[in-house]
Design goal:
Blueprint (H helix, E strand, L loop, with lengths): L1 H51 L3 H11 L2 H83 L1
């Protein structure tokens, strides 16, 4: 029985704290709304005065900041700077690679010339062999003529 009584008292205690928190929130809520309402009224009044002022440059600066155009413009300038820096880096790298590419092109030309010399050398060897066989055929033909002359 004492257990149930203690449990009941504890639940009443928790309920009273919860209701006190709700009451405090309800009491503070109109004050917060009133503060926000006053701030909103002050902002509207200031905006109205600003818009009726005659300085167009100030109006543009306000519009520029209010619409985040200034922030967008700054980001675009940062991107342009980054692109320019990137292009500069690429150009430097291309300039550093250019001598190597020239050397590679020269080596390619030397290789092609070497291959052409090798092909020419092989053709020369084939022509030498053909010349040797022609000499053999000519000597054979001459020896046949001499043999036929000798037989007759």
């Amino acid at each position: 029985m004492e257990f149930w009584l203690a449990l009941r008292l504890a639940s009443l205690h928790v309920t009273s704290y919860a209701s006190m928190a709700e009451q405090a929130a309800e009491a503070l809520d109109p004050i917060t709304v009133a503060k926000l309402h006053c701030a909103l009224l002050i902002w509207v009044k200031t905006s109205r005065e600003f818009l009726h002022s005659g300085n167009d440059k100030e109006k543009f600066k306000f519009f520029y900041k209010a619409t985040l155009l200034e922030q967008l413009n700054n980001r675009l300038q940062d991107l342009k700077f980054a692109l320019d820096y990137g292009n500069e880096c690429v150009n430097k790298m291309e300039d550093s690679v250019r001598p190597i590419l020239n050397e590679v092109n020269e080596l390619d030309e030397k290789i092609k010339k070497g291959e052409h010399i090798e092909e020419t050398s092989q053709q020369f060897d084939q022509l030498n062999k053909m010349l040797a066989w022609l000499c053999v055929y000519e000597v054979d033909g001459n020896s046949n003529k001499l043999a036929s002359c000798l037989k007759s």
